[in-house]
Amino acid sequence: MAGDTQSNAELNTELHIPAEEHGAGFPPFDSSTYASQILWLALTFGVFYWIMKNVAVPRIAGILEDRKDRIAGDLAEANRLKQETDEAIAAYEQALAEARAKAHGIASETREKLKAEQDARREKAEAELSEKLAQAEKHIAGVKSEALGQIEEIAGDTTSALVEALMGKAPTKTDLTKALKSAMN
Amino acid sequence: MANDPIHQFQIQKIFPIEVGGMDLSFTNSSLFMVLTVASAAAFLIFTTSGRGLIPGRMQSVSEMAYEFVAGMLRSSAGTEGMRFFPLVFSLFMFVLVANLLGMFPYFFTVTSHIIVTFALAMLVIGTVTIYGLMRHGTKFFHLFAPSGVPPVLLLIVAPIEVVSFISRPISLSVRLFANMLAGHITLKVFAGFIVSMGAAGGLSAVGAILPLGMTVALTALEFLVAFLQAYVFTVLTCMYLNDALHPSH
């Protein structure tokens, strides 16, 4: 018995287990501590659960929810702005197209007007020119007929002078005219 | 005593309380339960007190923990499962912080005691069973009879399902408990080698660098295990809760 105690004491020193704890064995399997552990676990975990359920979880959920809403709101706002921009661009393009069409209209109108003016001026000039031409032609014709009339007279005078010089006696007017007419024809 | 790898799991009474012959003392285990709860709650509450739209570093950690657990629960139990979110989140944070606190030297690891992990596992299974029965009545027992199995096979399958259901709290609690216990014992043993080899002097003292390196590596591994076991505990909780919500597989 004394030997047993001796060897037990030796074993204890070797394993460094204090003698008073030796009887308890492996601590996790020591059922004498179970009641206390369960009680304190229930208390602490209960309090923890209550804090999580009523404070921490709603708060973090709220933060995440706020962020989600904010991001969704910002995205919606961005979309709205984009739509506005698109509308503005469309309006601008339309205005541009209208202006272009209008400019085109003005340009062709001006072209028409200028062309009409030019035509009118050209017609006027042509008319003037043709009038001048007609006058000139008339003048030429007048001069020509005048000249032709004088030719008869000159020819008569010349013939009369020639006949007088040859025959010593001037021909009668009637003979002269007759002769001239036959000669000229 | 310093070299005894089991000593760190001893429970010491701080305030002895005895009610009707039952020992309900406030022990070092109770103290670390209080510390776990206090630090986890304080962290979650103080970091989110700013309610920043753009989170700071610390607030991000709290949000990440929230979204991590929420993602886990939603993917395994669906949106309906979110009604259990406070419970699952509390379990995850409690186990994680208890495991991490246990990594401090001289600190007590709450989750290295089977009774604690078993109590937490029973909480999960109790919730699953009670909620399942309340919600689905006898249909909850469809859990043990998977659809599409021929009636003859049910004779074999149903008992297997029953056994697997009953073994759930055991596997859930033993997994966490054994991981924490074994990890801490291994760390202690290797750390003890450094001391004894260093004390021996000479070549042996130089060789103490090997257990030192091992201890450093094991410490890193233990941090991983501390997180991983909290994660595994939570994931399994989510899957069991899914059974309560949708018993017919």
Structure at a glance:
The complex is a heterodimer of chains A (185) and B (249). Chain A has helices spanning 2-15, 19-22, 34-167, 173-184.
Report on the architecture of this protein:
- The complex is a heterodimer of chains A (about 180) and B (about 250).
- By secondary structure, chain A is mostly helical.
- Chain A has one domain.
- Chain A contains 4 helices and no strands.
- Chain A has helices at about 1-15, 20, 35-165, 175-185.
- The model of chain A is unreliable at about 1-25 (pLDDT under 50).
- Chain B has a two-stranded antiparallel sheet. Chain B has a two-stranded antiparallel sheet with strand order 2-3.
- The mean pLDDT of chain B is about 90.
- Helix content of chain B is about 70%, strand content about 5%.
- Chain B contains 7 helices and 4 strands.
- In chain B, helix 3 (about 85-100) packs antiparallel against helix 7 (about 210-245) and helix 4 packs antiparallel against helix 5 (about 150-200).
- Chain B has one domain.
- Classes of the chains: A mainly alpha (about 180), B mainly alpha (about 250).
- The interface between A and B is large, with 41 and 54 residues.
List low-confidence stretches of chain A. Answer: 1-23
Number of helices of chain B: 7
What kind of sheet is the major sheet of chain A? none
Strand content of chain A: under 5%
The best one-word shape of chain A is: rod-shaped
H/E series of chain A: HHHH
Helix and strand content put the structural class of chain B at mainly alpha
CA gyration radius of chain B, whole angstroms: 22 Å
Mean pLDDT of chain A: 84
Determine the N-to-C terminus distance of chain B.
52 Å
Helix content of chain A: over 70%
Distance between the termini of chain A: 196 Å
Oligomer: heterodimer
Radius of gyration of chain A: 70 Å
Total beta strand runs of chain A: 0
Compressed to H and E, one letter per element, the order of chain B equals EEEEHHHHHHH
Beta content of chain B comes to under 5%
What is the total domain count of chain A? 1
Sheet with most strands of chain B? 2 strands, antiparallel
